[in-house]
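Data's thin. Show one?
=====
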Amino acid sequence: MSEDQIQLISMDLIDRPQRVAREIIDPEKVRELAESIREHGLLQPVILRPSNGRYEMVAGDRRYLAHKLLNLKAIKAVIRELDDRDTIVIRGIENLQRENLTPSEEGAVYLLLREEGGLTVNHIAKKTGKSPNTIDRYLNLAKCSEEVRRAVDRKEVSLNVLETLQEIEDPEQFNYFFKMAAANGISEKVARLWVDDYLKTKAGEYYSEIESHPGVNVEVVSKPVFMTCECCHKPVEIKAVKNLVVCIECLKKVRHG
């Protein structure tokens, strides 16, 4: 039998994957897909693999759910003999093609492809059309704590800001600055100011420990604290902030706009 031969498989013989890559499957999207199938039929068969006299879903889980919603008894399918690694790769690639993946979901797929699918970053790049640098960035996010990932998903912190703050190696200090960033929606420029000030402070503390060393002269300088203007997204010194996080020029525009 040809691997690509399309068959009609009873819905009762199909098991969904034990690990669904997406944390949430949008019921509204499934309903829309069901209406499309009702109107036009299933345009792309699902991919199944044999499993103990039954079939396991490899690709097409939402199409399967849409068929269940329509109370259909069978679904068009292609049966393939696949090992676990090949199954993981196919599922991962399919999930990356879905709309509205959060950064955390995308990073989780890349991590799965690398750790369980056995693909290198370059192999993932070739299969997905994404650059290796992009994949590395999302892999970095996937390794972060849930708190960090959720903040990025909610767009409270951008990937650029996260990567800048990660230059702070001390976990407690990183957590402090990250929470400040998430609470205030800072720009990358402000994050860079924060990190540079932190590094200078850290260097000052180092030299203070050896201040008796000949030739060492550390000058203590008061540093301004910056936030992000919510209008122009430029750094603004915190003492100039008015009500909103907004610079003076933007405040004038708001008043006279």
Observations:
- The chain has four domains: 1-82, 83-143, 154-216, 224-257.
- The CA atoms of residues 40 and 118 lie 38 Å apart.
- The first strand starts at residue 6 and ends at 10.
